[in-house]
Design goal:
With 302 residues, the protein is mainly alpha-helical. The chain has a single domain, classed as Na+/H+ antiporter like fold. The chain contains twelve helices and no strands.
Amino acid sequence: MSEALLLLPDFALIAIGWLVCRYTALNRPLWEGVERLVYMMLFPALLFSSVARSPLSLSNVAPVAGSALVVLGVGIAAALALQAWPGVDRRLHASGAQTAFRFNTYVAFAMAQRLEGSAGLAWMAVLLAVSVPVVNVAAVWPLARQGGHHFGKELLRNPLILATAAGLLFKGLGLHLPDMAHTTLTRLGSAAVPLGLMAVGAGLQVGALRLAPGLALALMAIRHMLIPAVAVLLMLRSELPATQQSLLVAFAAMPTASSSYVLAARMGGHGPYTAGLVTLSTLLAMVTLPLWLGIFRALSGS
């Protein structure tokens, strides 16, 4: 119950976005612009500054990064394997597979700060720094194959990959952000989470899921059952600090990325079907995210 109350303000922002989009003059065209602003500028600023200032070093990052990659690897393999199912529409699969393993970074940052404060925010930045390139590569690959796009070119144009790589390079070179630059990026990034959460709500729709309900069910089972279960089992056997264990379980139970729709639509995939999966995942996570946190805490005795 406490986990659900902790996350309630963030899900309330999603609900507010839905209400504002449906019942005011601030309708869908405006929110499409907000989505692009968050995806192309605000969130990359947040990601770069968080990675550049995170406690990255090989000794303390390797264990938690390795655990995150194992968990995501299971999800990616399961999602891509669904293409072999008889009768699966290749375009729908290419569009929707990403929703089984991508994660909503807006919710992730908001949740990490609420759970563990500034330390949680720093460690979530580490998890994102490691995971964002991996899941974006896995998301772009089937869409590029299906739509005839150049895989490498799409990766080089992805703002999340570029921001993450720039942050890692900046940190690796031992550079430090000047105070003015840090303040500017922080203010840009601080707008990303609330606007991103409200944009998720504004984009909620489920009608297109009727095109392939079985595929949708399988993808959501991977996102909200398989991946969190693997994370819980892994963390119960892990010697990571308790803070990192809880964050990794929560990270594994995230709703899917709202930008999945943007990526699918931009690369010639089935945008409405992907939007339906994003909506369903967001609604499911309102129950499953606090549930998995509760299960882990009960089993670990923390």
